[in-house]
């Protein structure tokens, strides 16, 4: 009896006759050109054992990523799983790269075919351990998944490309349906999911149903996944799952959230929606929000009514189809609000303000007041930031629709709009106005330097800057300083342009001050063709007058001749 197992032990010892006494089983489907690379190599070049893993090298070249780790307690082995088996016993055995065949079996040397399909990793280890114990003493089996099998899924419904798809193991729903919604490419191993291509389609992405092979049904919400990153809304698919996606009709129930939130949304309604979920989809509250309550507006046959939902109820309050959530604005103090002062102040820079409360007078006081070189009449304030745009900003395109302006008038309207955009009139010499003008975050106050000059330009012989001595000096005096009028000057069109707002005044309508500009217009210059036409018209008019005179003389001569003839009779 003691020699009963002798033939098996002799055969096993021959089979295991390797330097490390290890058996390696490789995938026989590899290309013949790589067989030399698939041999196991050991080397002691570096004073230890060096092992090159050719199977691992080949698998890494496939570059198909897997998300997370496989749960060995729930993952069930199946056809095309690539596994390795390590058996610790009186004679250790390592079987690398075993492929589960179409019968759901792996073929082990000296042990034969072992059925593994449908078994979890612990169950498969127990199965192999039981079979190995017939040949080995106290075997301990450890199974490793080298490469999980791909999954076959089915996509149906209102998608452009329904049908069967092969997806990598551990793939989530968004990757699985991407190609069925876009180009229909069946090679999902190389697909890159672009959420914009999914969300812009007219599909019911918040109520996707997944039918599993055990007849259970789960639902998924990809909108929540893309907006919040909630992985539970984008589940990992299993082999044999059937996904159904319907088209989203115009009359489908919706819910929305708007108001003081970071991003307002109107999305498809999903049973179980709560204010908390929609607030998360909207990215949370804006800084100006009242984060203690939300208003839910609900439409019924009797009209619209409001439900106030307090903070503690946001997770439990169940929204109904077509509910509208409004996040209210609250009292808000922005500690980051500031305004700039540049130019002729004692302390130029950026100062903290209470947006909508701090006045221009207070800001100028923070800046230490104006220097002696400041030109208050030329100062101006610019509104900063999109939030602080001028509230009564008008749309020139709308104004043009009913206007009777000619083309030049419309062009002038556009230029006026550009020049006055976000500019606020300010008079630093008017303390009452300074105390009434409220500043907003991002405002900029500019106070230019008083160069104590008057700029004379236009039709003068020597245009340029001239010292401003006193207000008693007349416009004519400054024109004399500029060399007098040029040859084409229009003496009836002399203007004063005020510093700061550049308003035009005729001489005598305003007082000349430092920083003002004097402009002398020129007589109109005739365009060449227009001048020639004018000269021709004048010549024609002279000819007509001459002809008229000659006609009159001829008529008078005829009358006189007639009278003379009558008198002679």
Relevant terms:
single chain; alpha+beta; Outer membrane lipoprotein wza fold like; five-stranded mixed β-sheet; 13 helices; 24% helix
How would you characterize this protein structure?
This protein is an alpha+beta fold and 569 residues long. It folds into five domains: 142 residues, wza like domain (wza like fold); 95 residues, Outer membrane lipoprotein wza fold like (Roll), CATH 3.10.560; 76 residues, Outer membrane lipoprotein wza domain like (Outer membrane lipoprotein wza fold like), CATH 3.10.560; 110 residues, Roll (Outer membrane lipoprotein wza fold like); 70 residues, Outer membrane lipoprotein wza fold like (Roll), CATH 3.10.560.10. Helices cover 24% and strands 25% of the residues. The strands form seven sheets. The protein has a five-stranded mixed sheet with strand order 9-8-12-10-11, with helices on one face. A five-stranded mixed sheet has the order 14-13-17-15-16, with helices on one face. It starts with 5 loop residues before the first helix and ends with a helix.
